Amino acid sequence: MVEIDAIDRRILNALQRDGRITNADLAAKVSLSPSACHRRVQRLEETGLIQGYVALLDARKLERPTTVFVEITLSGQADELLEAFERAVRTIPDVLECHLMAGSADYLLKVVAQDTDDFARIHRQRLAKLPGVAQMHSSFSLKTVAQTTALPI
User: Fold this and answer.
1) What is the model's pTM?
2) How far is 34 from 23, CA to CA, in rounded Å?
3) Is the domain of 75 the same as that of 130?
4) CA torsion through residues 15, 21, 27, 29, sign
5) Burial of 68 (0-12, 13-18, 19+ CB in 10 A)
6) pLDDT at 2
7) CATH number where 28 lies
8) Number of structural domains, the chain?
9) Beta strand ranges found along the chain (DSSP E)
10) Which range marks the domain in which residue 77 is found?
11) What is the pLDDT of residues 15-40, one digit of tens each?
């Protein structure tokens, strides 16, 4: 665990809302001098608490409005099979997330597609060919009710 104080928390909250905020504006927002704020941000980056900065894109405007959650059950639990599956799933650009699960499925994938026909293509050409897949269950998202990348701090 990385030790953080109230000022670090304010910095992290501000950066989660706006990763492009200038150091001067961030320093003013958290009541620090710009040099002290810069040192704190550097420390948070060096410790890995801040892993990186990204642009959040609009999937609809990029013609990927369809979100599908895919539960995958593998034919076995051997380390080699799990590792092969995980290596292969990382190569599929349409898979935004892949989680190893405890429960009814081994993995849960979040997949984006243009539409149902595009998902059928992804399913047939990529997902069905993943190593060790025994079963797949797909659920189409009808509406995103809540979505954030900000962690509660």
Assistant:
1) 0.90
2) 6
3) yes
4) negative
5) buried
6) 85
7) 1.10.10.10
8) 2
9) 66-74, 95-100, 107-113, 133-140
10) 66-140
11) 999 999 999 999 999 999 999 999 99
